[in-house]
Amino acid sequence: MSSRPILSSSLLMATSDGEKTSPKIRYLGSGDDAIIRPGVVLVAPKHEYDHYLMKSTVFIYAIGLDDNQEMLIRGVIIDHPTAFTISEMSPNVMGSLSNNLLFRGGRSGSDSAMLLHSAGGADGSVKTGEMIGSSGIYEGGIVSAMEAADAKLANPDQFKFFFNYMEFRENELDDMFHGTVDDDGQVDEWVSLEVPPEYVLDSDLERGEMWSKLRNSIRNIHEG
Predict the structure, then answer these.
(1) What CA–CA distance (Å, rounded) separates 44 from 69?
(2) Assign residue 176 a region: left if phi > 0, alpha if psi is -120 to 50, beta otherwise?
(3) Cys-Cys crosslink for 108: which of 65, 128, 167, 176, Cβ 3.0 to 4.6 Å?
């Protein structure tokens, strides 16, 4: 039985003792001690060699049970851009959002697309569901999103499109989060962070660019 602190939406405000913060980034642990909940970002270690997860940053948007009552964790890789705009792959997306770049969220999902954005909530311009954790990010509402962007009630930069996602079972995360010792004798592990929504929704990213940025931030947090 895993002792990993994987939290459901009812525990989103829970924190761990000794959390470290920077002005924009909140450190939520690494390796076996990493807190995983909707709205966090998981940053890969240098030793991760999976084709999709190598030098990746994964935004966790859902945690729940499958038909067999086993826990599933879903996320999207936020810094794996494709060469296509959303309208080139989905002609139903029109107007101001049609030129937004499409990102590859992972290996699962049968090439289905999803929308993440920061224009929801009670005061937002897009009709959508609840915030994902405490991230400031919402999922879905494509028709409302197109209307809001065309009416200039929201900026196209607040919206990001993904196709496919990463899906993990709890035991898979346990295996992933076991650290290794790098050449400098330091333990290199997956890290959990809370970051500003604009980090997740940034569409001007090369592959691995946010990973590199957050790895530097993690280093600064530990040295600070």
Answers:
(1) 28
(2) alpha
(3) 167
CB neighbours (10 Å) of residue 142?
A: 20
- pLDDT < 70 positions in the chain: 1-23, 179-183, 185, 224
| This prediction's pTM | 0.87
What pLDDT does 4 receive?
A: 52
